[in-house]
Amino acid sequence: MIKVKIIGAGGYGGCGLLELLLRHPQAQVTGVIDIADVGKPIGTLLPHLKDYYTLPICAPDDPSNFTDVDVVFCATPDGVGMTLAQKFLDKGIKFIDFSGDFRFNNPADYAGYASRIGRDGSHASRHLLDSAVYGLAELHRQELKTTSLVGNPGCFATSCILGMAPALKHRLIDSPTIICDCKTGVSGAGKKPSPGFHYPARYDSMNAYKLTGHQHVFEIKRELSIVGETDVNIVFTPQVVPMCRGILSTLYATVKQGITAETVMDAYSNFYQDEPFIRLFSSNDTVMTSSIRGTNFCYLTIKVDESCSSLLVVSHIDNLMKGQAGSAIQAMNVMFDVPETQGLNLPAQYP
Amino acid sequence: MIKVKIIGAGGYGGCGLLELLLRHPQAQVTGVIDIADVGKPIGTLLPHLKDYYTLPICAPDDPSNFTDVDVVFCATPDGVGMTLAQKFLDKGIKFIDFSGDFRFNNPADYAGYASRIGRDGSHASRHLLDSAVYGLAELHRQELKTTSLVGNPGCFATSCILGMAPALKHRLIDSPTIICDCKTGVSGAGKKPSPGFHYPARYDSMNAYKLTGHQHVFEIKRELSIVGETDVNIVFTPQVVPMCRGILSTLYATVKQGITAETVMDAYSNFYQDEPFIRLFSSNDTVMTSSIRGTNFCYLTIKVDESCSSLLVVSHIDNLMKGQAGSAIQAMNVMFDVPETQGLNLPAQYP
Amino acid sequence: MIKVKIIGAGGYGGCGLLELLLRHPQAQVTGVIDIADVGKPIGTLLPHLKDYYTLPICAPDDPSNFTDVDVVFCATPDGVGMTLAQKFLDKGIKFIDFSGDFRFNNPADYAGYASRIGRDGSHASRHLLDSAVYGLAELHRQELKTTSLVGNPGCFATSCILGMAPALKHRLIDSPTIICDCKTGVSGAGKKPSPGFHYPARYDSMNAYKLTGHQHVFEIKRELSIVGETDVNIVFTPQVVPMCRGILSTLYATVKQGITAETVMDAYSNFYQDEPFIRLFSSNDTVMTSSIRGTNFCYLTIKVDESCSSLLVVSHIDNLMKGQAGSAIQAMNVMFDVPETQGLNLPAQYP
Amino acid sequence: MIKVKIIGAGGYGGCGLLELLLRHPQAQVTGVIDIADVGKPIGTLLPHLKDYYTLPICAPDDPSNFTDVDVVFCATPDGVGMTLAQKFLDKGIKFIDFSGDFRFNNPADYAGYASRIGRDGSHASRHLLDSAVYGLAELHRQELKTTSLVGNPGCFATSCILGMAPALKHRLIDSPTIICDCKTGVSGAGKKPSPGFHYPARYDSMNAYKLTGHQHVFEIKRELSIVGETDVNIVFTPQVVPMCRGILSTLYATVKQGITAETVMDAYSNFYQDEPFIRLFSSNDTVMTSSIRGTNFCYLTIKVDESCSSLLVVSHIDNLMKGQAGSAIQAMNVMFDVPETQGLNLPAQYP
């Protein structure tokens, strides 16, 4: 049984983990850690879980945090994980961070990312960056098997990387620029209320934001450049629509002349042939985010217009699942060598 | 292993059963039956389930429907179950019907119900009414253990009956009239599109309906009269609000003079002390339908105003779970003597 | 031309006034006053109005606030209007307050109200209470014609009072207790974000709240007692549903024996015969809040069940219009003796 | 006073016209024509308008349709207007059609469009195509002044054409391909219920559709090719999100090397300098569709990334206003030489 503790348990990330681990036959939650409401049961923060978890919230500096635990999920804002990781790693405890703190091996990439979220580019655990693994199992399964430190991918980034990786791997792309037009539900912005996500302001309104530069572009660029062994350029437009869960990323690229729809579909089928959470669709299929809502699936619709060598991929994920907690559990499963779909093998609840 | 077949698998009722039975360790779906799309896999109708079920849809008259099956759920509109039940019962197959066909033991009650939904009051299997059990486990657990024929309760009715049964059982009520002010999400109206549930017509609009008389009033009246051993009168106002899942029923009654808040809370605690799916709250607690969304729970908030002898109960359920498929699985568990929470013991997914 | 200034212009109340006054042929906004963003144009706070208003926000203590103005709307939280009213009245400027500060003529009633919102019961302008008029034109039209000080009614209160006043006026009610089961959209809670109104927490969730006592019950009780010349008792249950605009209040009372549906409908028709914003419907009509969304109408559906002497009234208003800014403009029209529907005579925008 | 009749008055298009014409000081509705509910007042179909219009619905073949009328709006599905236009034109009555029937001057373009909506490419009034004007006032104001026959633009098309026309006019674009990633609220699909727009299926789900080819691409391509005097290629991805009103189209193009952000903004400012309904924003501004909801405005956010010569334009309209009824009224104003903003000069109602 994998013993799990969660830092930042009261947010959407922690909530997702707590829900998923209830279904996991080989893992159990042994502690929840937060800065607020110390001593209270986690059900105080998350009323729907009070019949399921009676664990009291521990303070971050509680010495018991380091005992009875195999892996810690750090579901906290940027800048927290980097100050905590070493302490857990020192005791042989694996560490999976939900922020951007460990998504980059390169201080320069981290600094670029950091500048987009208003943080200075210095990193409190720069020495750990080398050993951190980007926690996207589809691309880093082998490295996950041996690492103790994981940076859980960004939600938008996951949808874009999974959507374009096969095309880059198979050298189908002609132009270096990939357009990522991404729409997300509001839960992607977290649990904290703000004017733009107040129900009356949002229920019938959508908008693009961070047009001057979103932080996720760095990890998309990095991952796709690695898989394609070439420098890619990302034009990334984040948008919010009035729904709770779901990302729909529409990706545009130019394929090399002569590349047919069949070639592309073959490349994607080949790349994802054994993947338990990826499903491929053609432009004739009807695909909606509701089909993957609450699940760890990524549904990819692929269309090639041979007349103008254009490739269109529509990538569908649940931002809180494949885009966050589900992906983290999948990475944990790989790290502990248990079946990769453990705890994740349930369909959406519909409608 | 309980072998289950589902008639009317493509609607919300059948969909809920298919989802829940995936989690059930002691039951499995061996067949799906529908009038449309015969021969196609059920995933054609319910795309989010196509990775989980490959069963082809069988026609209602397919002889194989009667083999390899212990219980049939008939998730169809009113009038269908009454024509099918006997055939399955004859072969020793238990039958759980989702419509009003088997909710009444008395032809007169059925006729009243039928008149409210535009059906004539004759019943195609009148001889079976006597042996049918109203499938609300909290009130009919003993009878469920031995019956083969169940009428699954209406969603509004479940919320009202569970909310008022303890007060009647413990003889707390003074006046015969109970007001049931009920609000439901749109999924309660089923999967079929209609002008009032078209997204643009509904997204920011609520309304009361069937003010001239809703059919659920008959089962509420009957069940509460039985439990209270007195004739109760129900004023019932159904209302639709722009959400998908959830019923919030606000129930008003007058308690006998001198009845205190403590007496009432004791009565409810006593009545529901061993119930796995009922939770009680006081008027100081914050309770939202999101806490029970997607679950089989019923949350009851109880308030007594001693100054005017008024009792207020707010009853929260998910109309598709405790109000439909969840309740049916709970009844099945009782009927087959497996633990009552099997397949139902998961919390809401939040947010 | 009536010259209008608005205090608290950036909230939903101020916003509604600014929108309505654009359509008003006999009134114009000459100033906007707020504590924040002083000096900036109001379009900074309300981007959809920046093409329509270029007025800069003035500080509350700006001496120019008292010039070039006939009436001030004080769209601020409780406790502000009571400190400002006298200064404007002294200069002959009429004062319409949106909070509960001037809804009561009686310090005791105010103290009751105040206790429900966490304020102490003392009133900074107690000497003004006597001359304040409750701004519901349908009940206080004559007094509005001569007053300079108005307390704009609460949104829930408006729906309940309009729904029950005719029954009380015509002495149709038998029991002193009236049940008000009220549902509101989220905009009723104002513009400030909070956890319960964060989009992901609210999009598919409803709840009852303030079960221990809501402040609006005092004005409902007072107004209905006056019109009925009897003491009425109010059971009031506020509920929030996931929509933006709209209140649907379902009201229950017992009518005297022998009172027929026809008698009741006649009483309501008589009471509201010349009212421009009230419409009556029977229980056979389909009425939805979308029909009055964005308008100053109140739609009342009336049903009498003669068999049990029960009266049911469903009252539909837009909480920000007839429940707030629309009602205030209507009161202003009466106070300045211009046609009562000026600025208010437009239908809903559908869908 | 312009006398107006509306064919297809009960749909969203007709509804929008009826609402707008109430505010129009120089136009009035003298007749409503529909195939259903003939003889009934229009308020039967549109309950929110029953206090405002008492006109009975006339049958399409009612001879009175041709009297007391200066202009007819034909708010019907494709294929209807082409059979009716000549009859009205013969009597000197102007004709504004909401479908694609008169959006093309060229039978070949029409045939392409028709093939995308499952119609055969023949046109019942081919001889009229030459004289029809595409009703986008910003691009065809001069032609509108003299024509009697207008094809009202498609909603998606309007957002894309307005977003890219200045860049093409000023020869800023380098590559012939323009990507139009378009998201719409559900009202764009009309009033008729269907499974994908049923509230429970849509409230938390988004999807791309018609990936094999949407009909609006033809008018976008045509209009932009004319204004740019060059052949443009359009990649067009329509998407539906769970909201009622609003289109947000994100447009991507490559600008010529050396083109700066300033050059682009100057070009747009110049192109739209006197336009009453176009507003320009930079990538630093926060722009949401709620600001233009219910209005005739088009808000354009413009961003140039000089490092990779990319142009991004986010175009915001209300699909039922600037995307449909508002645009049609604007065209009518031009045709009848009344001020272009008549009836259209009101802001959004917020929230």
List keywords for this structure.
homotetramer, 351 residues, alpha/beta, Rossmann fold, Dihydrodipicolinate Reductase, domain 2, 7-stranded mixed sheet, 9 helices
Describe this structure in words.
4 copies of one chain form a homotetramer. In chain A, α1 packs across α9 and α5 (155-169) runs parallel beside α7 (217-228). Chain A is of the alpha/beta class. A 7-stranded parallel β-sheet of chain A has the order 3-2-1-4-5-7-6, with helices on both faces. In chain A, strands 9-10-8-11-14-13-12 form a 7-stranded mixed β-sheet. The radius of gyration of chain A is 20 Å and the shape is globular. Chain A folds into 2 domains: 2-153 and 322-335, NAD(P)-binding Rossmann-like Domain (Rossmann fold), CATH 3.40.50; 156-318, Dihydrodipicolinate Reductase, domain 2, CATH 3.30.360.10. The first copy, chain A, has helices at 12-22, 81-90, 107-116, 137-144, 155-169, 199-202, 217-228, 261-271, 321-335, and strands spanning 2-7, 27-33, 57-58, 71-74, 94-97, 133-134, 149-151, 177-184, 207-208, 233-240, 247-254, 278-282, 298-305, 310-317. The interface between A and D is large, with 46 and 46 residues.
Tell me the helix content of chain A.
25-40%
Instruction: Enumerate how many helices of chain A there are, as a single number.
Output: 9
Biggest interface pair, residues each?
A-D, 46 and 46 residues
Find the count of extended strands of chain A (DSSP E, 2+ residues). 14
Order of helices and strands of chain A: EHEEEHEHEHEHEHEHEEHEEEH
**Sheet with the most strands, sense and barrel status of chain A:** 7 strands, parallel
The whole-angstrom Rg of chain A is 20 Å
Task: Write down the domain tally of chain A.
Answer: 2
Report the top-level CATH class of the largest domain in chain A: Alpha Beta
> CATH-wise, what's the superfamily of the largest domain in chain A?
NAD(P)-binding Rossmann-like Domain
Poorly predicted segments of chain A: none
CATH topology of the largest domain in chain A: Rossmann fold
> Strand portion of chain A, in percent?
15-25%
